[in-house]
Write a structure and sequence with these properties.
By secondary structure, the chain is of the alpha/beta class. The chain has helices at residues 18-30, 45-51, 68-78, 93-102, 114-142, 160-172, 189-200, 216-224, 241-245, 260-272, 298-303, 309-315, 332-347, 356-362, 370-383, 393-402, 412-415, 432-450, 455-462, 466-484; strands at residues 11-14, 36-39, 56-60, 84-88, 106-109, 179-182, 206-210, 249-253, 274-275, 284-285, 289-294, 318-321, 353-354, 389-390. The protein has four domains: 11-134, Response regulator (Rossmann fold); 143-323, P-loop containing nucleotide triphosphate hydrolases (Rossmann fold, 3-Layer(aba) Sandwich), CATH 3.40.50; 327-406, Helicase, Ruva Protein, domain 3 (Orthogonal Bundle); 416-484, Arc Repressor Mutant, subunit A (Orthogonal Bundle), CATH 1.10.10. The strands form four sheets. The chain has a five-stranded parallel β-sheet, with helices on both faces.
């Protein structure tokens, strides 16, 4: 497993006693911090800081040559953002107050307790990372172009919202904090997770797992592995996905379906960067990054008591929400061309041409299954394709069968109501002619708006011929002129 430096830039420990330096270094290593440099001579500290980007300084207060108190002043002159934690004895509390005024962010009393060291160091490093992320976000979101467009090569789009999401992903990819990706089924959540992993340049693997059907025991065994003899049938040790990912990215799909018991185990991994294989008391440290996804509303699950509040706030540190395909009409032609090329290659067929009307037709459909449904539809149309030009019949038939099931009664249902069904006896009910005319005008207006003014496609939506639609539009125009006159 490839080692990942934690933190990304070193922790500098300054103490005039070698035994103290060794003790701190060993303690930090056992806590999962493996990027450490030490300095026994306080006169060399400024030279180190001048040549090395350091994330944190642990500074003994009483030292020969240059005291910790004087060093803080010098450090803050060249690195005002660098956090310094003072290490001191209880009898030196007055000096600690002076150091805090000079810019120290925290202090640790001797003898140092391991858990206290862990919490203070982690808190200081989180502040450093937060400030770094904020600077990166400002830089990334203000930039007009992507720095690494190749990381998004699997995602076909020219949609401004998607490009904005790409810039956000670039800005947060280097963070060690979790990222939550939300969006409906088929919107491309795993593709975004893979792009984030590529951008992060993390040395470990990208490991994806759908945890929707896991009970607590399967979840723990899958993620954390088990030792030999952990349960009946465990005749040999098994490493889990956390170990497999190493210092890479673990993608947890459908996090909203995770049981409360499993949520506790995941929280420990995120919060403490620790886990234990099933059947083992040995604590292991992990430097992986977790990207989670769900199509469910985690805030709603939290309010219902079905999702832990502490885990929820851990996960939404960085949040990406993907739009529906119907909200990206400009991508329809790009995706159609891409899927036709991919599927034609897979089938060993010549790439077909198609009439522009096909794109207009596809833009009238809501695609509840989003991009996944679109690809399946294109593949099916290509299999049924027999002529030089791709027929639109497969698309029309599919949309005719699927649309009524995916329409709301008030909005979509009207758009597929046949205007020929609006026949009436003008003597049957007073005012019926006027009411019918208004309904007809509304339906035609909506259909034409939906299709961008394409009468052929609008006619199919309305269940009438194109000639009939043209006549109705002319009558409506004439009636409008007469009313205005």
């Amino acid at each position: 497993m490839t080692n990942h430096l934690n933190p990304s830039n070193p922790i500098l420990i300054v103490d005039d006693e070698q035994s103290a330096l060794d003790g701190f270094e060993i303690a930090l290593h056992t806590l999962g911090f493996n990027n450490i440099i030490t300095c026994q001579d306080s006169r060399k500290v400024m030279q180190i800081l001048g040549t090395t980007q350091v994330d944190l300084v642990l500074l003994d207060l009483i030292m020969p040559h240059v005291s910790g108190s004087d060093l803080i002043v010098e450090i803050k002159k060249i690195r005002p953002d660098l956090p310094v934690i003072v290490i001191t004895a209880v009898s030196e509390i007055d000096s600690v107050v002076s150091c805090m005024r000079k810019g120290a962010v925290d202090y640790i009393l001797k003898p140092v307790e391991k858990e206290q060291l862990k919490s203070r160091v982690r808190k200081a490093l989180e502040i450093v990372e937060l400030e770094r992320e904020n600077a990166q976000l400002r830089k990334g979101l203000l930039a007009g172009d992507l720095h690494h467009p190749e990381s998004f090569s699997r995602i076909v789009t020219a949609d401004p919202r998607m490009l904005s999401i790409f810039r956000y992903c670039e800005a947060v990819a280097g963070s060690s904090k979790p990222i939550l990706v939300t969006g409906n089924t088929g919107t491309g959540k795993e593709l975004i997770a893979r792009a984030i992993h590529d951008l992060s340049r993390r040395p470990g693997e990208f490991v994806a797992v759908n945890i929707a059907a896991f009970d607590d025991s399967v979840f723990a065994d899958t993620l954390f592995g088990h030792v030999r003899g952990a349960f009946t049938g465990a005749d040999k040790a098994r490493r889990g996905l956390v170990e497999k990912a190493g210092s890479g990215t673990l993608f947890l799909d459908e996090i909203g379906d995770l049981s409360l018991a499993s949520q506790v185990k995941l929280l420990r991994l995120l919060q403490e960067q620790e886990y234990s294989p099933v059947g083992s008391d040995r604590v292991r440290h992990s430097s992986l990054r977790v990207v989670a996804s769900t199509h469910r509303d985690l805030a709603e699950l939290k309010s219902q008591g079905r999702f832990r509040e502490d885990l929820y706030y851990r996960l939404i540190t960085h949040h990406v929400h993907l739009p529906l395909l119907k909200e990206r009409p400009g991508d329809i032609k790009l995706l159609l061309d891409y899927f036709l090329e991919v599927e034609s290659r897979d089938l060993g067929r010549k790439l077909p041409t198609y009439h522009p009307e096909v794109v207009t037709l596809l833009r009238t459909y809501d695609f509840p299954g989003n991009i996944r449904e679109f690809r399946a539809l294109v593949a099916d149309a290509l299999v049924k394709h027999t002529s030089r030009m791709l027929s639109s019949q497969t698309f029309k038939e599919y949309m005719r069968l699927e649309s009524p099931q995916n329409c709301s009664s008030e909005d979509q249902g009207q758009r597929f109501l046949s205007l020929d069904a609006l026949s009436f006896d003008p003597e049957a009910l007073p005012g019926l002619r006027e009411a019918t005319a208004k309904v007809t005008e509304k339906l035609i207006s909506e259909a034409m708006a939906k299709t961008g003014g394409n009468q052929t496609v609008a006619a199919r939506i309305l269940g009438i011929s194109q000639q009939s639609l043209s006549v109705k539009i002319q009558r409506l125009k004439s009636a409008s002129k007469n009313d205005s006159a």
